[in-house]
Amino acid sequence: MEVAALYLRHQDKVLLLHRQDHKAEGNCWGVPGGKLKRGESPLQGVIREVKEETGYECSPDSLKFIICAVKPGYLWLGGKALVKYGIYLGHPRAGVSNGSHAR
Question: Potential cystine with 8: which of 15, 57, 81, 103 (Cβ 3.0-4.6 Å)?
Fold first, then answer.
């Protein structure tokens, strides 16, 4: 399974999202991101996830790839899988969306 996440930085702050209680890893804070769709690159996936979760649009040019890591032991469908993480650092594009539905 491949996952991409973005540390979305604005001025001196980093955006964190609060997961709903009934979701996996509920009642936790984390950065926007999620599982990649079939055929999707980590860059495409992180841009899509940030837009879906926050309303912000990020330009590919504004994102900096930080690291790719593999984490064993993720429980998925009753088994263990390796999760490949693509981590990015970026900024929202000015004037595209105010992210008003993100709380």
Answer: 15
In single-letter form, the type of residue at position 36 comes to: L
State the sign of the Cα–Cα–Cα–Cα dihedral 99, 52, 46, 30. Answer: positive
Amino acid at 11: Q
**Which residue ranges of the chain lie beneath pLDDT 50?**
74-77, 95-103
The SS3 of residue 52 is helix
In sequence order, which residues have a C-beta less than 8 Å from that of residue 51 and are 6 or more positions away?
57, 58
Give, as one character, the DSSP assignment of residue 66.
E
Residue 69 maps to a domain: yes
pLDDT at 48: 93
What CATH number should be reported for the domain holding residue 54? Answer: 3.90.79.10
Indicate the number of domains in the chain: 1
pTM of the model: 0.71
